[in-house]
Specification:
Layout (H helix, E strand, L loop, with lengths): L2 H24 L12 H14 L5 H11 L9 H23 L3 E2 L2 E2 L1 H8 L4 H24 L5 H28 L7 H27 L8 H25 L2 H4 L5 H5 L4 H9 L2 H10 L7 H13 L2 H21 L7 H16 L3
Antiparallel strand pairs: 1-2
Keywords: Isoprene biosynthesis, Magnesium, Metal-binding, Transferase
Pfam families: polyprenyl_synt
Protein name: Polyprenyl synthetase
């Protein structure tokens, strides 16, 4: 990406981080909880810690850049939409870490493990409170839109877009779990999971919200927006799966090999099994789904993948989908502002290169 775009991205991120912190400073006062409850403020504290701990805020950037496709002037409603997108993301992280039994997130303890440590003798309470913490984040993500100081029609349209995105994400989580019951899902199934589980709420919905806030009607361009979001979502899921085995644990803030230990039919696992010989397949399948397998066993699988060229092949696939997404965005030049079209054109390849 150009330096100008990178500086604009950094500005979106910095401004939002301050906004998010301010939001959590005040959200408790507007929550109708009984005065005796100690668990409610503790839940908000955990949501705050997870939300403010990090993350690239790419959804916020997409939201603002989508509005800039239409205008470079101030746009009402973007702050509420940004808070909503990141609260929905917090909801997803809380539930993801419970589903995956993940101890860490963004370099700190997951919400689930925080509750496990808090209630070591009450595992059901730890699970229940984790579910409810994620549910509360979802409710807050919709509430912040309902309270946005924008015209009623715009408010309703934004709530509808975000509600659809949330529902699609839940379906994505369901088919993600269902995928792992299949013996060998084909690539179309993996692409569908990526679309529902991440693309629709992480890419499509922020773009729709930004366009709506700027006075555009995204429904007029739904086919191409969905195509762009799907392609970028596939790249993102490929990148996540790639990093799960071939990434650096310290950089990611979570251990590698999680998908292998959980027996997930990820893009990486599919690429591995398609590349190995019979002896290597036995090595991979011996650890696939073994929650207790050692770091050395994961390292051995990683070495097999590297020897068979799996990382290079996956990067090539990511670049192919990224180029297709860039071509979709390039077609927007006749309709929308050049500087933000350039952002959406450059984003897919930039995201993929960071995986290298």
């Amino acid at each position: 990406m150009t330096q100008q775009i990178l500086e604009r991205v950094a500005g979106h991120e910095q401004r939002f981080n301050a906004l998010f912190e301010e939001y959590f400073d005040t959200v408790g006062a507007g929550l109708d909880a009984p005065s005796f409850s100690r668990f409610t403020p503790e839940c908000l504290r955990l949501l705050r810690e997870l939300s403010l701990r990090g993350g690239k805020r790419i959804r916020v950037v997409l939201l603002h850049e989508a509005a800039r496709l239409v205008t470079d002037g101030p746009v009402e409603g973007l702050d509420a939409a940004a808070l909503s997108t990141e609260l929905l993301q917090t909801h997803g992280l809380v539930h993801d870490d419970l589903i995956d039994d993940s101890p860490t997130r963004r370099g700190g303890p997951s919400t689930y493990y925080s509750y496990r440590d808090r209630f070591p003798d009450h595992p059901r309470a730890a699970v229940g409170l984790t579910v409810l913490a994620g549910d509360l984040a979802l409710a807050l993500s919709l509430r912040v839109l309902l309270e946005a100081k924008v015209p009623v029609a715009l408010r309703q349209a934004m709530v509808e877009a975000q509600t659809r995105a949330a529902a699609d994400t839940f379906v994505g989580q369901i088919i993600d779990l269902e995928r792992d019951f299949a013996a060998a899902p084909d690539e179309d199934v993996l692409h569908c999971v990526a679309d529902y589980k991440s693309a629709r709420y992480s890419i499509l919905a922020p773009m729709q919200l930004g366009l709506l806030a700027a006075g555009e009607q995204p429904a007029l361009f739904e086919k191409e927006l969905r195509a762009y979001a799907r392609l970028v979502g596939i790249c993102g899921q490929m990148r996540d799966d790639y990093l799960d085995l071939f990434g650096d644990a310290a950089t990611m803030g979570k251990p590698t090999g999680t998908d292998i230990r959980e027996g997930k039919n990820s893009y990486t696992v599919r690429a591995l099994l398609a590349s190995v010989d019979d002896a290597e397949r036995c090595t991979v399948e011996a650890v696939l789904g073994d929650a207790s397998c050692t770091p050395e066993a994961i390292a051995a699988v990683r070495e097999i993948g590297e020897r068979r060229g799996v990382p290079a092949g996956m990067r090539a696939d990511m670049r192919r989908h990224a180029r297709q997404a860039s071509e979709v965005a390039a077609g927007w030049r006749s309709r929308w502002r050049e500087e933000s079209v350039a952002f959406f054109e450059q984003l897919p390849l930039w995201s993929v290169e960071r995986a290298g």
